[in-house]
Structures are given as C-alpha cells and as structure tokens.
Amino acid sequence: MSEADTTAQGAVAAEVQRRILDQIRDSALGPGQRLGGERDLATAFGVSRSSVRLALAALERTGAVRRVAGRGGGTFVGSPKVDRDLSRIVGVPQLLRRQGMQAGTRVLGTGLVVADTPTAAALGLPDGAHVLDIVRIRLADGTPISLEHARLPAALFPGLLELPLGGSLYELLEEHFDTRPHDAVEHIEVVTADEHEAAVLAVPRDAPLLSITRTTRNHDGTAFEHSHDLFRADRTSITVRSFAEVAMAAVTAG
Questions:
Q1: What pLDDT is recorded for position 227?
Q2: What is the pLDDT of residues 130-149, one digit of tens each?
Q3: What is the dihedral of CA 25, 26, 31, 33, to 10 degrees?
Q4: Where does the HTH gntR-type domain lie (predicted)?
C-alpha cells in the first residue's frame, strides 16, 4: 500500500471512529451493547473491513469499546470511566453518584487484627496494636470497579464493625464518631491483577490495575485510615489539580 493509500485509509478509519463515538454519545449505543461484526459495520458505513478494523483498534485503546475473542465474543461498547479527582477526599459511593452512576458494595470480610508493620507505621500505632480490617468490592452500575482494603485504629472506632458497611465509610465515621477526613497522602502505581483480584474484579488475569495506597488524617493530624485500593484501569481515570509554587506560597502566607 502506498503512502497516499495509507493516509487515505487512516482518514476513513478516523471518520468511522468519529461516527461510532457519535452514536455512543447520543445513546444510540449503550454500555455493554454489542456492535455489529466488521463485515456488518463495513457495509453500514460503506467502507472497507480494514478501515473498520483500524477504527475499532483506536476505539479499544481509549476504552470506548472492548473486544472479546472467541465464540460468543465480539466488539462491545465500553462502560464509562470513573474519574478519581485526587484534589478531593470523598468516598467511592459519593464519587460515583456525582458522575451519574449507581453505587454498590459487596463486603468480602471484616475483622479485628494486629496491625502489620506498614500499617502501624502509617497510623502511628505501637507494636501489637489492633486495627479494624475491612475488605469490600465497589460496584459502578452493577459492575466491579475496585477492590478496597481499609484498616483503621480499633481504639478510635469501637463498634464500627457492627454498623452497616455497604455505604461510605467516611459518612459512618462522621455520623457515629465525629471524625472526618482533612487531608490524605496517596501513592499510585500500575500493577497487574493476580488470580484472586482478577476473579473479584471481573477482569482477565494480568489486567492492569491502579494501585492506590492512602493514609488519611483528621483535622488534628491524627491518622485514622490506611487503605489499599485496586481500581480497574479500564474503568478509571485520574485527575490531579496542581498549583504553581508562587500560588502555594501566597496561600500559605494568607
């Protein structure tokens, strides 16, 4: 194929990509809906199958569609991504509601355990101190979005595990213990799903995940939460708001 032909095919593929995105945005195609096969799409758009293949590959890279191999597979409209705005400290249920999604939770386990070394260090606890251990799956519109593992000082929150844990942990802490987040430090890296994580998050083994380790403090500087969350990378985006040094200096001086 000549350079001119390649350029022309790229332009056609880009137009097909735009038209499919328009259908998704106009709700003509909903999340999880199966697109036609390459041959059907080529006929519908009046283009070659190779142009359709290029368009679908580009859409898959952005998460707009997902392709499933094998019998019964095909190309499906992707689900919307959850935007994690790191400039705000909010629980996942509130985060999802603000973005028009239905929040859900499955509690996998709770318990009273001795803090391991990293947790004790993050929470400023002495050796042998106990923490409340809460493991939950968060759902967005019924689909697993994250695996959440929270640890909190047991001495600060007696009776917490007896409360309903299907909603926002922050809302429970504020309502029952007059504790609310003031600031948090989060460390983010990309990891791959092991067999257990893949099963609970409904992704293939070795699928990319966003690993977020968070330590949260209240208004007097007491660390009250040390969490490790695994978010599906195909369903999550990260927003970070940054300020220039001059602006930060002015805020500090004020």
A1: 97
A2: 999 999 999 988 889 999 99
A3: -130
A4: 10-80
The CATH code belonging to domain 3-77 is 1.10.10.10
Contact 113, 130 (CB under 8 A): yes
The verdict on domain 82-239 having CATH code 3.40.630.30 is no
Nearest to 186 by CA among 144, 142, 231, 154: 231
> Which pair of structure tokens corresponds to residue 197?
């994580």
Give the number of other CB atoms < 10 A from CB of residue 99: 14
Q: Which residues does the chain have with pLDDT short of 70?
A: 1-5, 27, 70-73, 246-254
- Helices (H), strands (E): how many in the chain? 8, 10
* Domain residue extents for the chain: 3-77, 82-239
Convert the pLDDT of each residue in 52-64 to its tens digit.
Answer: 999 998 888 777 7
Q: Which two tokens stand for residue 67?
A: 């392709």
Identify residue 124 by its one-letter amino acid code.
G
Q: Distance of CA 210 to CAs 5, 193, 207, Å?
A: 39, 10, 10
**List of long-range contacts for 37-40, beta carbons under 8 Å, 24+ apart:** 37/74, 37/75
